[in-house]
Amino acid sequence: MLPESTRTRQLNGSCASLVDMELFLHYSLIPSLAIILVLSFLQRREHRRQRDDTSYLLGNHFGIIMPLDFVGTFSNRWSYGIAFGATANKVMFLFSEGYQPLQVPQWAQAFVLLIGGIEVGLAYFPFFACLSSEFRLVGSILGFCYSLIWFAVTVLQVSQCPHGQFLGRYETVMFYWPSLLCLAFLLGRFLHMFVKALRVHLGWERQAEEKSVLEAHQAAHVKRLLRRPHPREGEATWFQTRIYEWDPCFQFPSRMIGTIVLAFICLYLFIVIEFYVFVFVQDELAVFEGKLESYVASVNQTGNLTPVILQVKELITVTKGVWVVTILPASLTCVSYLFHILACYRKHIKKLWAGDKHFLPLKFRNPASSESVVAIARYSGWQIAYILWGYLIIHVVQSLCGMAIMYGLVLPVIHNQALEMLQGLGIGILTISIVVGLMVLQVRIAAGFFLQPKLSAADKQKPLALNNRKAFHNFNYFLFFYNVLLGLGACLSRLFISCVLGTWLIARIDRTIMQSGYEGADMGFSAWVGMLYVDHYHTNPVLVSFCHILIADHRERKLQQAIKYCYIDQSAGPRVSARSRTRWLLLQTLVNNPRLVMLRKPKSGHSSREFTQILLTCSDC
Questions:
Q1: 173-210 burial by CB neighbour count: b if 16+ within 10 A, else e?
Q2: What is the largest CA-CA distance in the chain?
Q3: Which one of 276, 316, 458, 558 is least enclosed by Cβ atoms within 10 Å?
Q4: What's the rounded Cα separation, in Å, for the pair 583 and 608?
Q5: To the nearest whole percent, how much of the chain has pLDDT over 70?
Q6: CB atoms inside a 10 Å sphere around CB 572
Q7: Measuring CA to CA, which residue among 250, 373, 391 is closest to residue 330?
Q8: φ and ψ at 461, to 5 degrees?
Q9: How far is CA 216 from the centre of its chain?
Q10: CB contact set of 500 (below 8 Å; sequence gap of 6+)
Q11: Backbone angle region of 615, left / alpha / beta, with phi > 0 → left and psi within -120 to 50 → alpha
């Protein structure tokens, strides 16, 4: 009788869903374009065309709508992040190059991937456009309906074929639950937007004021710069020093939040896909091991290849075990990188705000403007790709380290060779200790015999002035031949350390893994620096505060000028304030129309009868 997992795989191998997600993606462009047209029709164009332009016939409708501001958006950040998370499944299909809407030659694959990316972008464009639309009521209705369609279709796909051919039960659920969770959040978000917009439309709530150029956290940052720092502000706990310190005067832009959320979900999906592949390879290896066992049994374990076959089986078993065990540390490493990237972004952008560029290589301290603009478009996608490929490379490196530990320490103990293993380990450690000791001894001898004494007792080290020159030259001569051999080990250690650090930090786009002078070849780091400069030039709190002051002053001047034009037809005389003039006109109107007094709300301290008596007295005068 077949195992339950095998029966589940066979059952789902013939499972045919009524919904083809790839075909649905094509048809989803129809409502997507309809929503885009509706929002574009409602969007007013700021500058109307001339009459000789054909677009003049459209009036001031059909303005350009944008999904979100990738530079200066700090509000509604998590909604945008969850909307990015809803695209994770399609992003993974694009990453694996599994989604190709057209069949073209190999040399044209780049254009096909570009068309596929644009199609996916159009399919998910309404989520972002409805979240950022100024017309909250219409945007919330359209966004809710579109999210409901995607949610219903995804649920239908999962419910009809919940199991898979690799992991068995609930394989499809494991793959689609992040997107379902994001779509459910968007449904709740659009519903909340609709209720709030409806209350404003009915007059139950006040409409939100026009959004200011200056954000609250940016104003708080500028105020903190202008006030005298408190003595206790410099004190920090161990967690704030070593892990993270929350700053109320700083917020990450929506682009960074969306990138991190999408990177988390894509990393999870990548690990799931990797495990799918591992299960498939494990089944193939199980068939191969069965053939090896049948061969060993056929020769009654006396064949010449029997020891080799046993070693191959042991290698397969160890490799499978090490690969599974290293999934957790590799994934935790990449997750820690995602949090560390946020911390590095805040640290680097604050240094740029303070005018400190010393943390950047020399050639990156004044990047080209065009490269920076392109970099901010590349960064989010490249960061996700670096994390995914970095996870795979780190997983392979950790698996190799695990294999070395297994064959160097564990398997000798299992095969009753612990004494030989300890002997070899001791000899290796002793050899390395002697080499390192001789290197340290050279430094000690140089500091004790070949340098002149300190000039002052307060000096930290001796001056770079030679002493005992004859002994020094003999020291150099006799160590020359030894250092040739020592240099070979140093060269190999340099290569080994560079490979380990390079592969370990491959997912870190916030720092270059190239040597000094070759940083320009690191395209990921170039995108990081360009993105930092764009954010620095467009979201610097001091610059934004200055622009806010200029805009507010300009509006105040226009208001004062409008008030002055209102009274330009009046005769010249003593200048009075607008408030006094309004009160005088009100008094004159009430004196000429005493019945209006009874319809006005009485002031505090005076009743309507007393105020009427005052007006009658004034009229008699």
A1: ebbbebbbebbebbbebbeebbebbeeeeeeeeeeeee
A2: 134
A3: 458
A4: 18
A5: 82
A6: 5
A7: 391
A8: -145, 165
A9: 22
A10: 397
A11: alpha
Position 361 pLDDT exceeds 50: yes
pLDDT at 465: 84
- Amino acid, res. 227: R
Matching residue, tokens 């589940």:
8
pLDDT digits (tens, 9 = 90+) for 577-589: 677 777 777 777 7
Grouping H, G, I as helix, E, B as strand and the rest as coil, residue 542 is helix
From the list 278, 524, 256, the residue with the least C-alpha distance to 390 is: 524
Burial of 506 per CB tally in 10 Å (0-12, 13-18, 19+): buried
Which residues neighbour 576 within 8 Å (Cβ) at sequence distance 6 or greater? none
Q: Phi, psi (5° rounding) for residue 466?
A: -70, 150
What CA–CA distance (Å, rounded) separates 543 from 43?
Answer: 29
Token pair 């604050």 is found at 350
Whole-angstrom CA distances from 374 to 348, 519, 531, 591, 621 are: 19, 18, 9, 69, 77
β-bridge partners, 451? 466
CA distances from residue 599 to 176, 238, 593 in whole angstroms, order as listed: 66, 68, 11
Q: Can you read off the two tokens belonging to residue 449?
A: 């015999």
Closest CA to 197 of 253, 143, 151, 137: 137
The pLDDT of residue 399:
93
Closest by CA position to 121, among listed 100, 91, 98, 96: 91
Q: How far apart are CA 50 and CA 269, in angstroms?
A: 52
Q: Which residue type, as a one-letter code, is found at position 42?
A: L
Tally Cβ neighbours within 10 Å of residue 502. Answer: 13
Q: Give the pair of three-digit tokens for residue 497.
A: 């350390």
At residue 200, what are phi and psi to the nearest 5 degrees?
A: -70, -40
- Measuring CA to CA, which residue among 326, 323, 317 is closest to residue 285? 317
pLDDT in tens, 63-85: 777 788 777 777 788 888 899 88
Cα-based distances in Å from 135 to 58, 65, 131, 501: 19, 12, 10, 51
Helix %, strand %, coil % of the chain (to 5): 70, 0, 30
The span from the CA of 177 to the CA of 154, in Å, is 9
pLDDT for position 571: 47
Tell me the chain's radius of gyration from C-alpha atoms. Answer: 36
Helix H segments across 326-458? Answer: 327-353, 369-405, 411-414, 418-449
| CB contact at 8 A, 61 and 41 | yes
